[in-house]
Every structure is written in C-alpha cells, then in structure tokens.
Amino acid sequence: MSDAAPVVEFRRVTKSFGSTPAVNGVSFSVRRGEFFSLLGPSGCGKTTTLRLLAGFEAPDPGGGEVCIDGEVVNDRRPYERRIGMVFQNYALFPHLSVERNVAFGLEEHRVPKGEVPGRVARALELVRLAPATFARRRPHQLSGGQRQRVALARALVLEPSILLLDEPLGALDLQLRKEMQLELKALNRQLGMTFVYVTHDQEEALAMSDRIAVMSAARIAQLGTPAEVYENPRTEFVAGFIGVANIFGGRLGEGSSGGGAPRSVRRDDGRTLLVPDAPSVPAGAPVRIAVRPEWLDLAPPEAPPPGENTLPGVVEEVVYLGETMHVVVTLDDGHSVRVALRNEGQLGNPLRWRRGELVLVAWRPEDCQVLEPE
Amino acid sequence: MTGLRRRLLGPLVRRPAAGSWALLTPGLLWLLLFFAVPLAVLLGYSVMQRGTYGGVAPGFTLEHYRRFSDPIYLSIVWRTLWIALATTVLCLLLGYPVAYAIARAGRWRAALLFLVILPFWTSFLVRTYAMIVLLRGSGVVNTLLAALGLTATPLELLYTPGAVLAGLVYGYLPFMILPIYASLERIDLDLLDAAEALGARGPARFRRVILPLSLPGVAAGSLLVFIPALGAFLTPDLLGGAKSMMLGNLVQNQFGPARNWPFGSAVSFALMGVVFVALLVWLRVRDAEERA
Amino acid sequence: MRRPLPRALAWIVAGVFLLLHLPVVVLVAYSFNAARYSAAWSGFTLHWYAALLERPDILRALRLSLVVASTSTLLATVLGTLVAMALARARFRGSRLIEGGLYLPIVTPEIVAGISLLILFAAVQVPLGVGTVIVAHTAFCLPFVAVVVLARLRGMDRTLEEAALVLGADELTAFRRVTLPQLAPGILAGALLAFTLSLDDFVITFFVAGPGATTLPVLVYSMVRRGVEPTINAVSTLLVVLTTLAVGVAARVDGARRA
Fold this sequence. Notes:
The structure holds three protein chains of three kinds. Chain A is α+β, with helices and mostly antiparallel strands. Chain A is 23% helix and 32% strand. Chain A has nine helices and 20 strands. Chain A has helices at residues 46-54, 98-108, 116-126, 131-134, 144-156, 174-191, 202-208, 226-231, 236-241; strands at residues 8-17, 20-30, 35-39, 65-68, 71-72, 83-86, 162-166, 194-199, 211-216, 219-224, 246-252, 263-266, 272-275, 286-291, 297-299, 309-320, 324-331, 336-342, 358-363, 369-371. In chain A, the strands form four sheets. In chain A, strands 6-7-8-3-9-10 form a six-stranded mixed beta sheet, sandwiched between helices. In chain A, strands 13-12-11-14-20 form a five-stranded antiparallel beta sheet. In chain A, a hairpin with a 2-residue loop joins β9 (211-216) and β10. In chain A, α2 (98-108) runs parallel beside α5. Chain A is elongated and about 80 Å long. In chain B, 75% of the residues lie in helices and 3% in strands. In chain B, a hairpin with a 5-residue loop joins β1 (48-50) and β2 (56-60). In chain B, α4 (71-103) packs parallel to α8 (161-185), α8 (161-185) crosses α10 and α10 packs antiparallel against α13 (261-291). The radius of gyration of chain B is 25 Å and the shape is globular. Chain C contains twelve helices and no strands. Chain C has helices spanning 7-30, 47-53, 56-89, 95-101, 103-107, 110-123, 130-155, 158-166, 171-200, 203-208, 216-226, 230-258. In chain C, α3 (56-89) crosses α11 (216-226). Chains B and C meet through α1, α2, α4, α5 and α6 of B and α1, α3, α4, α5 and α6 of C.
C-alpha cells in the first residue's frame, strides 16, 4: 500500500433507486491526504456517492466497484470500513452527553476503558472545545457551531483513514462557516487524513478543496483542481454552476485544427470572435464559449478596445458590490453580458459607467473557454 | 461472538425485505389469526343457513342480507345512522368552540388540554354508568328538578333515544375536540395578522382564514366520532330502551336470545359496510383537500 | 390568537367542560353518600368502600383485570413495536397495504370483533377463559401500539442510526444503544394506551371471557344491569383513580426522561 495508491476508488459505480439512477457510471479516485470535494446542485448524486462510500448504500448488482485502500468494499457494512463521518445535521445522540457521544465509537471498538477519557479530551481539544466546559453537556445545550465541533471530534477520535463530511457547514451562519472552513482545511493538513467533502456551495468547494468533482445528473461533469474547474470549465453546466459565466454561441470557422493557433467563431449576427484552438470540435460545428465576467473589459465606443474580441452594447445596469462593480450590458442581439470591474480604490469618484451609455465589451481570445456539448 | 452475530445479521441487513418480514411475522400472524380469520368465518356464516338450535347449517343463501328490507330492521339501520350523525353534529357544535378556546388560551392551554384528555383515560363503562346516575328516575337531574319545583313527577329521561344520544356525545366529545384543536394550533399566527392587515377582522377573519384552515381537523374529528358511534353497543345497551336499539345491539341480540347466527353475522357485515363507506367518503374528502 | 374570548363563547366553553366532567364528579361524590337509593345527599360515609372488602368477587375481578392488562400489554407492545420497526425500516412489497391494514382493527366496531372471535373459538372448540381474553386483548391493542410507535419512529432521525454504524456499532448494537433510547417514550406511550384499553375493555371481553374469567368491567356491567347500587359508585371511583394514577406516573416518567 504505497502512498501513491488511491485511498478511495470508484469504478463505474451505478446506484439506482427504483428505475432512476442516482449515481450513473461514476469513476474517480481520491489520493491519500487529499481534500476532495463532491460539488453539485441538490439531486445531482453527490450525497448518494458519499453514502456508497460510507456503506449505507450498495452499488446496483453489476453496478461497478467501490474500493477503499485497494480493496473492493461493495459488500462491507459501514462498521467494517475504516471511515469516519460528519453528518449534515450532526446526528449527535441526544440522550448522551458530549463526552459519551465522543466515547461511543471508542467503546464500540473495545478501546481499553482507561484510555477512553484521555482520548475523548484530546479529541475535544483538537476541535477547540474545552473538555472541562463541554464534556457533561447534552447536545441540545450546545450552539450549532459547538454541535458541529462535537460531531467532528466524535469522528476524529477514532483516527479513521478517511473522513466523510456531508454538507457539514450547511446549517451555520456565514461568519461561522468561513471560520470552520479554515479549521477543517487546517485539520486536513495537520492530521494527514483524507477528507471527502460533499457540498452544494461552490465558493466553499473552491476555498477548501485540493480537487473538486463537479456532479450533475448522476454523473461527474468535471474533475479537477479548483483553478482548473473555474478557469477551464468543460461544459456549460460547470461554467454556470461554478461562478458566473457569460455564454456566447456560434459556429467554429475553418482553420488548422490542433495547431494551437486561435480559431474563429462566427456568430449569428455575422461578427467573429477569436477563441483558443479546440481540437475536439470540427470546423463548422456549433460551439458555445464561456467568458468569466472579470475577464471582460469595457471601453467607450471610440477608444481602442482592450482585447481582440469586441461586441457593442448599451449599459443596462450598474451594480456596486464593494470589491467589484458589475456592469450589465445589453448587446445588439438582445443578449446581456455581465462585466466585473475591479474596484480600484477610488471610492469617492462617481461611478464611471452610466445606464444607457454606448460601450464596447472586449476581451482577449485566450480568456475564452470553448465548451464541450453536454 | 461479535463475528458470529454479524455473520447472522448480514443476510437480514443486506436484504431489507427479508429483515422486515422477520420483524413483521409474529405480529401479523397474531392479527391474522385473531382478527382476520374470525372476520372471514363471520362472513362465511352470514351466507349459510340458520341452525336449528343456534349455530349454522350448511347451504348457501343470501336471505339474511335480504331481511334488511323488513321494516323492523330497516328502521334500526336508519336509527343507527341518524343517531351517529346527530352525535357527530352535536359533538362538532359543542367541540369546536372548546377547541378554539383552548387554542387561544395562552398559559391555560396545557391545563385545559389535560381536562379534555382526562376522560380518555376514564373507563367508558364508568362514564356511561355515571350517565345513569344522573338521568335515572330517582337520579340527580330529576331530584334537582323536583327540588326546584319544576316537575311534579320524575321525567322519563333514561331508556330513550335522547339518553343514548347524550351518552354518545358525552363519550366521544374529546375525539372531536382534539383533532380540531391540533389543526387550529398549527395555524401560523402571521396568517391572522396578514388577514387583519388585508382588512379582515373579527367574524370575517374567522370565516375566511381560521375556519378553512381548521377543516382537516373537523373532518378527522367527525370521522373519529362517527365511526365508533355507528358501532356503539354499550351506550344504547345501558341507556337505551327497546325503541333505541342500534345495529350493535341487534348483532348481540341475534347471537344471544334470538339465536340466529347467520343473520347476526349479516348484520355485522352491514355495520362494517357502513363504517367503510364513512371511511371512503372521508378519504375522498381528504385527498380532494390535499390536491387543492 | 391573543384577544380575549367573546363572553358568550366563554360561557359555552365552560358549559361543555362542566358537561364533560360533572357526571364522573357526581359519581365520585355519591360513592361517599350515605343514602342507598335516593339521589339526595344524606351524609358522608366510607361504608360502600368497606363493603367492597367483603366482596371477594370484586377483588378477584380486579386482580384478573390487572393480570390480563399487563400480560396483553406486554405481548401487544413487543409485537406491535416489531411491526412498527419493520414498516419504518423500508418500503417493500405490500408494506403500504399492511400499514393501511393496521387501521382495520382500530375502526372495526368492537361488537363485531368480539362476536367474530367468539364464533371462531366456538368453531375450533377452544374453551373460553382467561387465555382467550388475553389473546383477544393482545389482538386489539397491537395495532394501537404499532401505530403509536410507528409515528415516533417516522419522526426519528435515521442518521442517528447511521452515525452509530459508522462509529463501529453493528445493527443490533445501534438499535440497543441509539434507537431504543430514542424510541422508549413512544413505546411507553403505546404500552400505556394498550394497558388502559385492556383495563377498560368491556365489549370484546364480554363475548370471549366465558363464565370463569370475569374482569372488573364485566363484573361492573353485570352489577349495573342488576340495578344501581352505591357499591358500583365506589368501584367506579377506584377504577377512575387507578387509571388516573397510571397516567400520572407515566407522564412523570416521561417528563423526567425528557428533562
């Protein structure tokens, strides 16, 4: 069992409820110590994927293999896998005190009685709960954030090789969520434990993960580092789900494929846009391209455009967001695009763009992402 | 030890249906043997010939069901229906204000609720007997009336359909109050403020917001009163006379003194039939409400 | 709903509450009334309670009622809880039908259930007695327990069990250490319901008891049929006190658990 071997591996796993697949031929692997996120909207199959890994669900007959540490675990019950789990609603045992909750797993694993109090205390300290204050409390006497920490301590005390987290921060307020994000990330690094994290919050996934599997309709739409999925979204779904994307359509023009030189895309209104080479799309085929708002820029119509691709339009709305300013521009063809401009620190200045003003939206070809059809 | 147990547990947890059936079987078997099978036997008896000295004799016949067209029995059917219906309506008229009052009783709510639930835990037989103590010739009511000089001779209160009705209303009133209370209590207080902000106050607010939202409770309460009232036996038996016999008493009568088991069985199924019609109507109403 | 009640409504409500409780209050009061036949108050006495002690049949009936109620409560609670657990665990072929079917005994008129059991026992020539009473009581209490426990199970958080599994408990241990403690109030409520239903039951018992197995309600019924007498008031009062006490204790136990 080398470090390079994946801790978790899904091999074409399918799980159906009735006749509808909740997870459909999903394959991926998780490396040791990695912070791995399953991200997607509700109903995309991310929770079922996690439950398959935990052992609450088994793949369909002939529905692929779930492996932990290189062994197929399809038939193993949750208590026969070395995993820990933190549940969305914490699932603390309401009839047991904090310390008895944390000790539960140790007792089930027949840890010698003398060792239990020490390990419980250490686990509570690890999640920054003072044992003297909290050990005797019941779950209903704790705040949401404290419950979250107890749930975490209860899972960590067993030192599992994999920790599964099912939207653990969903019920916390924003401030606390940001704080816990940092703590979880720190724990992951400090303990060297593999984290598999389910969330529907793209910001959270981007902030915490080493890699993200973006799921949609029971499949993985894209798997990669946060930067990869944000900057090079492969499909329109990924582009739209993670961050904001402006989508333009057209047909890919002639040109040498695979040479690396920019290609042209002809829009319905006759204008052409330059995009990076997309070897997988044949010339003449319809394509869609995504451009992030912050990669677009605005210029007055008569000024030299700050990019090779330009489209004229009218400022529809200016939204001041503090860090950035979003300008919504309606193009000739009626579509609107969102342009994010950085706040350069001239707060006293009147906003530069006004409603009804004629502008040019411009960007560089290399900032476009040619999307694959879904 | 643990290993063996987990091996045995394995098949049951991996095939949930098998595990479920293992848990179900003892209880289901009990209900099958001591509820379903007896009903099946009763159904069988209802289409057999009458035995000479009670019991049944072989031979298929529907004559016992046909006997319902006899005016004597028809009148019992009608009486049962109207008594059950009148019980339900009276319970509703008396129970709704009480449920409404409890729902807005503030800190007295728990105490009042307790007072409604208390009769649940009091023996039905004892409560029916208490009605006799109140209503009989030398009972409390008559003694009181005489003492006040309102009546010269005791009124015939007991052994009348009225006494049966009073006994049933008294017996089943809590079944009406509780579901209505539950549905009233669930009403979001903001809705009432919203109604008021839109100009509906007092009676209009009650009629247009509170009443419609409490209808599910009214429906449930009506069913909970109507069904046991239909099958009433003890109340008409103790408080009623010959002129207030209900289907339940007819059943007992046929298996007892009249010694006509097949007809008694047929009456039983007629009674079950009415109960099921009531249930179906209720289910229809509820489904329609849920769809709306 | 904070405004005061209209006065007329308040009077109606007070009247209904009076109606609901006056009969039993009068009954209890009369159990201390010295007069034998008339309803007029002629002085306080404990005579009727003392008379009870000289009625071995009443004490016997009371004892039998308690034996029947506890035995059938135990049986119905165990079987009903198992049924509820099966139905709460998973949807399977026929589970909805079975769940609906549980309401059948609840809505069936007691007289029909009693008579049908009577003719079954007669048909297979089982002698009527304490055994048949317990069997019948278990049968009609079981669905009530199952329905109450099922409601509790449905309201329970399934992830608690899953959390226990991930922490190393197998299904049986998870049930014992996590589900059962959560479920206990529901089981207790179901058992209490079964106990009072059994203790109170007259109609079904009347048909399946046979001459040797007179429970307290059956005895009280026959006394009432013979005519009103003050000892019945005393017995009734004892019955009321008994069930109220049982409910009170159960509420205390439940309250203490939740605190």
